[in-house]
Design brief:
Blueprint lengths: L6 E5 L4 H12 L3 E6 L2 H11 L5 E5 L5 H15 L4 E4 L14 H29 L2 E6 L14 H21 L4 E8 L11 H8 L10 H13 L7 E4 L9
Parallel strand pairs: 1-2, 1-4, 2-3, 4-5, 5-6, 6-7
Helix pairs in contact: 1-7, 3-4, 4-5
């Protein structure tokens, strides 16, 4: 007998890695509640996903507690409970320390920090009350192994903190049966990188095998973690060895 469908909340679901994660769970027959800042982007994603009965779009600023609460409430109202939370929404601003602006700091703290904390706080309490669930944070390989080739203090500061927070929360929620893990991608093929050959050659050089990963590589890692019965507190690098050291 097949397992009943799970209910999955995915932030940053309208494009890139988040879209691929939503697509993968829908393809398994699960229900997905997806978030992005605007309904226009979410509706465009929903049209491409093609599962109107199983995908609920919830637009809003993920840095606001009200948005996190809305995601939880819509998921529970439609599907009964939440089984999986994937904190995917994030931005990456790489520049020298002196070049960061106040707006950069506020944006990174809002989306990459508050945008993980508030959904996790709301959904984590719900999962603990239900006796189980999975939380996966999408962080960054560069937070595990910084490189002088890409000055990126803000992403390293915040994503690095999230890697450690993943472990801390795994311990805190273990008695409730909630598993907490992270996936730390390296360079992944998304539209943001463009098609300039010089840029692509530089990006390929950021891992020892001189390659760029695909969104499917990240999806496979997320699915492994949320299928696992005995994995919690892990930070899984998906970077083809970039965080292993220098080369």
């Amino acid at each position: 007998m097949s397992a009943p469908p799970k209910t999955v909340i995915v932030t940053g679901a309208s494009s890139g890695i988040g879209f691929a994660i939503a697509q993968a769970y829908l393809g398994r027959g699960d229900n997905v509640v997806g978030n992005a800042r605007t309904m226009e982007r979410l509706q465009a994603a929903a049209d491409k996903l093609g599962h109107p009965a199983n995908f609920i779009p919830v637009a809003g600023d993920i840095a606001r507690p009200a948005t996190a609460q809305a995601l939880l409430e819509r998921a529970v109202a439609a599907f009964g409970k939440v089984d999986i939370l994937v904190n995917n929404a994030g931005i990456f601003l790489a520049k020298p320390l002196a070049d960061y602006t106040e707006d950069d700091v506020e944006a990174m703290v809002g989306i990459n920090l508050k945008g993980v904390f508030y959904p996790t706080q709301a959904v984590g309490a719900h999962m603990a009350a239900n006796g189980g669930g999975h939380i996966v944070n999408i962080t960054a390989s560069i937070a595990m192994q910084p490189t002088a080739k890409v000055p990126a203090l803000l992403p390293v500061l915040i994503k690095g903190g999230l890697n450690h927070a993943t472990r801390a929360l795994a311990l805190e929620l273990a008695p409730s049966g909630v598993k907490v893990n992270a996936v730390a991608p390296g360079i992944i093929e998304t539209p943001m990188h463009g098609k300039d050959e010089g840029t692509r050659a530089f990006l390929k050089g950021l891992n020892p095998s001189n390659t760029i990963g695909s969104t499917r590589d990240v999806v496979d890692a997320v699915l492994y973690l949320t299928d696992s019965r005995f994995t919690s507190g892990a930070v899984l690098n998906v970077d083809d060895g970039a965080a292993s050291g220098t080369w």
